[in-house]
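Database export, one record per block. Field names are fixed; values are copied verbatim from the stored entry.
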Amino acid sequence: MVVAILGYRRDTNFFYAYYITKILFDMVCEGTVDCLAHAYVAKNVHGRKRISMFGVLAGVRTISGVCATFSARFLPIASTFQVSAMSLFFGLVYMRIFLKERLDNNEGNDDYDEYDGGGLKILAEPILRDAPSNTHVFNTKYSSFKDMISLIKNSTILIQALVVTFFATFSQTGMQSAFLYFLKARFGFTKNDFAELLLLVTIIGSISQLFLLPILVSAIGEHKVLSTGLLMEFFNAACLSVAWSAWVPYATTVLVPGAMFVMPSVCGIASRQVGSSEQGKVQGCISGVKAFAGVLAPFVYSPLTALFLSDNAPFYFPGFSLLCIAFSVMIGFLQSLLIKEHSSLPQVKIIAINNP
C-alpha cells in the first residue's frame, strides 16, 4: 500500500517519502508475498497437484503483469498509482474474506491420518523424504532458523533443489540484466522492439504455465519437466549468444516455456520433501536463495556484457556473457539430473505429539 503515497500526491517530498518507505518495507517484505503464496498452496494442495498449482500461480502472476503493462500504457500517470493502490486494497480484502488460514494441523491435514491407542499420531507423510529414520521427530522447541538448517542438512533432495534454484535464478537474472543491453548494442533495438519482444515472451510464458505445464507433469513427471525446462533455457541462451540477425531473438521465444517451467518444478519437488507444517520454511529457503542469486547476478553479468560489447574486449564475441549464462544453466541442468524421484512413500513413522 506504499504506492498510495504517490496516488495522493507526486511532489518531491512525497516521492522521497514513498522511496524511503518502500526501501524500509522491502527490507522486511520483499518476496514475502510470493513465498507465503507458495507455502499456502503447498499446505492446501498435496502430491503432484502442487506443481500444477504452482504453474497456475506463476501464470496468473505473468498475466497480471501484462494487464499492469497495458494499464500503465493507457491510464494517466495520476490514475496509474491510484489504480495500483486500489488493486492492492482489493487483494487484501479478498485475502481476509476468502483465504482460510489453517493454524491447526489437525483440521483437514492429510499429513497426519490417525492416532494410535496411546495418544500418538501416525505420520503418513514424513517430514523429510530422504532423511535417516532418526531425524523424523520434529522438536517444536527449536527456533525457525534451526528448523530450516535441520531440514536442509537432512534432505539431499532439498539441497539439490536449492542448488538448482541458485543457478536457475542466477542465470535468469543475468539474462535480464544482459539481454536487452546486448540487443540494443548489437541490433539497435528500440523501446518499441523491446515492448513487442517482452509482450511476446509474456504471452507465451503465461500460456505454457497455465496449460502446458500441468499436461507435462502428468505425462513425464516433475523431475523430467525440471530438466527439460533447464535444457530449453540452455539452448535459448546459447542461440542468443551467437545471434546473427534481429529476427533470432523472436525465433528463440519458442524456447521461453523452458524458463517458465523451472521454478514451479523446483517448488513442487521441494514441497514434497516436508510435511505441511514446514512448507513455509522450505519456501522461505527457496525465496532466500533466489534473492541472493538475484543480487549477485548483475554484479557478474552487467560488467561482462559491457566489456565484450566495447572496443576493449579481449576477443570478438559480443554475446560472450550470454554464453556464460548458458553454461550456468547447464550446471543447474546437470544438478537436476541427480535429483532422485521417489516412486513410493517410505515406511510410516510414529511420532509423539502433545495433545492439548
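Remark 1: The two ends are 39 Å apart (CA to CA).
Remark 2: The beta strands are 112-115, 120-123, 349-352.
End of record.
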